[in-house]
Amino acid sequence: MRVPSPLIRSPLASVFLAWGMSAPLAETTAELMLEPDLCGVGLRHCVR
């Protein structure tokens, strides 16, 4: 299934905001975590 990246990035950034990150850092972190998935590399398997 293809989902536009902003539909994933926004909720992901919201989680980081809820954890207490600043807005700029939450946006950057969400983008960096999403980028490998957009390139076909699942980063989530490396962060356990």
Characterise this structure.
62% of the residues lie in helices and 0% in strands. With 48 residues, the chain is mainly alpha-helical. The chain has one domain (5-45). Helix 1 packs across helix 2 (23-38). The longest helix is centred in the middle third of the chain and has 16 residues, at 23-38. The chain is globular and about 30 Å long. The protein starts with a helix and ends in a 10-residue tail after the last helix.
Oligomerization: single chain
User: Approximately how much beta-strand content do the residues carry?
Assistant: under 5%
Tell me, briefly, the overall form: globular
One letter per element, helices H and strands E, the order comes to HH
Number of helical runs? 2
| Low-pLDDT sequence parts | none
Average per-residue pLDDT, rounded, comes to: 84
The strand count comes to 0
Total separate domains: 1
Straight-line distance between termini: 25 Å
As a whole number of angstroms, the C-alpha radius of gyration is 11 Å
Helical fraction equals 55-70%
Biggest pleated sheet: none
The class by helix and strand makeup works out as mainly alpha
